[in-house]
Amino acid sequence: MMNTLNRKVTTRKQSGFALVELLIAMLIGLVLVGGILQIFSSSRQTHRVHEATARMQESGRMALEVISRDIRMADFWGCASDLMNVVNNLNSAGTGYIDFGAGGVGGLEGASGAADTLFLRGGFSSGLSVQPPYGPQASANIKVPAGNDLEQGDIIFISDCTNADIFQVSNANPQSSGVLVHNTGSVTEPGNYNSTNPGCPGSNAHCLSKIYGADASVFNVQEIRYSIAPGSEGEPALFRNGDEYLDGIEDFQILYGEDTASVGVANYYVPADQVVDMNNVVSIRFAVVTRSQDDNLTGGVNQQYSVLGESRTAPDQRLRQTYMSTVTIRNRL
């Protein structure tokens, strides 16, 4: 009798799960796994959005800072603030010629909503004082302090409070010698040649327009061009003077503030093709649009955003952010 009971108890302890119990356990497991996968997918998407947003903010803020700085310094010509008194001695037939006579500010309006292009011209750097001996003729080289960081091929301008000349350094050792030669020839591009120069017109065309003295200073001069084009990774990028500067910049739109009353304040802002006179532009309003590299970040909808008051709908599900600034051209006030 005891053996029979023991066998019954032993048999009951060794019995497994019933089929219904097993199915319920599997269902609960599937629900738990599904929840974990949902949390993982949501966390991963959130991380992608945060990472893309941080990168877009970094690119957008850097673009605003760099472009704003260059706009503020545009149209700087030293004491000779009027561009009419600046003589451009660069060879107009040479490769890389810059038409500084076109003014300190210019732009091209992008066709059919494409990105705009901005041109900024003028001097920069703190300036180098001109040292004796001066002359004795306008074609003589210019003396400045040694250790000036200038190189052969640099385009510079010399200015006093009445006149200014733009030329290219043609000698190989301006940094150590403190001598700035402006000869003609094929050593540099575009080189120096100005047959209409008032200093010595005709065949001796490497002269400057006057003999500069102790009241003159030498500055670097440049043309800065901002545009949008495909970058090295196939993504749209901001280009500065033809070099890729910031990736992830999809659009660049510009409005020019014209001061028709000569009071130092813009009356209105218009695109480049509607500006009456670029010389009257005293401020520039611009916007850059940053775009995420990854797609499928907007939850299945095409993002709505605005650029300088124009509403747009994104053609894909990438994230986009617009950064805008209005900058005064200091040298025109």
Total domains: 2
Rg result: 33 Å
**How many alpha or pi helices?**
3
Sequence of secondary-structure elements: HHEEEEEEHEEEEEEEEEE
Low-confidence sequence ranges: none
Distance N to C terminus: 115 Å
Estimated share of beta-strand residues: 25-35%
Per the principal axes of the C-alpha atoms, what is the gross shape? elongated
Amount of helix: 10-25%
Main sheet?
A: 8 strands, mixed
Mean pLDDT, rounded to whole units?
A: 88
- By DSSP, the count of extended strands is 16
Structural class: alpha+beta
Description of the structure:
The chain has 2 domains: 18-72 and 248-333, no CATH class; 79-107 and 117-224, no CATH class. Helices cover 21% and strands 30% of the residues. The protein is built from 3 helices and 16 strands. The strands form 4 sheets. Strands 1, 2, 3, 5, 6, 8, 9 and 10 form an 8-stranded mixed β-sheet that branches. The chain starts with a helix and ends in a 5-residue tail after the last strand.
